[in-house]
Amino acid sequence: MKLLRSLASICLLAAAALSVPTQEKRVHHQADLSDRAHDDSHGFQYDHKAFLGKEEAKTFDQLTPEESKDKLAMIVVRIDTDKDGYISHAELHHWIKHRQRRYIEENVNKHWKDYDKNQDGKIGWEEYKNTTYSFYLDEEFDDVEDKATYRSMLTRDERRFKTADRDGDGIATREEFTAFLHPEEFDYMKDLVVQGTCSLQRAGRGSPTGDTNKDGYLHNAEVAHWVLPGEVDHADNEAKHLIHETDTDKDQKITKKEILANWNMFVGSQVTNYGEDLTKRHDEL
C-alpha cells in the first residue's frame, strides 16, 4: 500500500501538470484509471471517485437504488455481446475501453465548441489564448500574484499546444486538439507529461518520491518510471478487478445476478461511463 500511495501522489502531480483552463475557470484533467490506489476496504474510492465526474456524480445521486439497478441491468444486456448470459473478461474489457473513448470524444467536443469561435473546424493558438487568457492578461487585471500565475500557465499551455500541433502550422486539427487535452493518450506527448510533472516538483509542489539517485529531485527518467511504467492496460486491470470482486462462483465470468448483487460497485465504475449511462435511455447507449 505504501508503494501504491507513492505512485498515486506522483500521478496526481501528472494530473495537475495536464490541467487545461477554460474561459471562466481552470478545468483539471480527470484522473486516469491508474491514478488512484485500489483499496476497497475504505469504500469503493477507486471504482467511484476516480471514475465519476462532478456533474455526472450529481446526476447519479438523483437516482434511487432501484432505478440504478434497473438501468444497470439494461447496460449488462449490452455488455453481453454474445448473449450467453455471462459477462466475460473480454466483453467487460471491451466495454470499459469503449467508455474511455467515448468520454474523451465527448470532452473534446464540448471544449471544441468553446474555442472554435469562427467555426472553421480548426482551433488556432491565438484563438485558444484569447478565449482562455485575455481577461487575466489584460492591464486592468491588477492582481500581480494571480497575473504571474496565469502567465506561467500560458507559457505551459503554449508549449503543450505546439507539441500537440504536429505539423507546426499554429492550428490544431481535432486530433491535435485531442492530444492537447488528453496528452496521456498519445505517445508523442509523453515526454511533455513527464516534463510537466518534473516542473511541478522542482517548483516545490511535489514530493521527491521515486528519487532513485537520492539527490532530492525527480529527474525525467525517474518520473517516467513512475508515471509511464510501460504499456499498462488500465481498462484490463479494472475489468479483472470487477470480475474478481463480484464473481461469487469463481468461474472467471459474471452474471447479471452477480453484478446487480454488487450494483454499488458498478454504478460508480467506468463501466457506466462515469455514472452517466445510468441516466440515459437504453436506445441512447
Write the layout of secondary structure elements.
Layout: H1 2-17, E1 20-21, E2 26-27, H2 54-61, H3 65-79, H4 89-115, E3 123-124, H5 125-137, H6 144-164, E4 171-172, H7 174-181, H8 190-205, H9 220-227, H10 234-246, H11 256-261, H12 263-266
Helix pairs in contact: 1-8, 4-7, 4-10, 5-6, 6-7, 8-9
Protein name: Reticulocalbin-3
Organism: Pogonophryne albipinna
Subunit structure: Interacts with PCSK6 (immature form including the propeptide); probably involved in the maturation and the secretion of PCSK6.
Could you name the key traits of this structure?
two-stranded antiparallel sheet, signal, mainly alpha, 54% helix, 285 residues, endoplasmic reticulum, two-stranded antiparallel ribbon, disordered N terminus
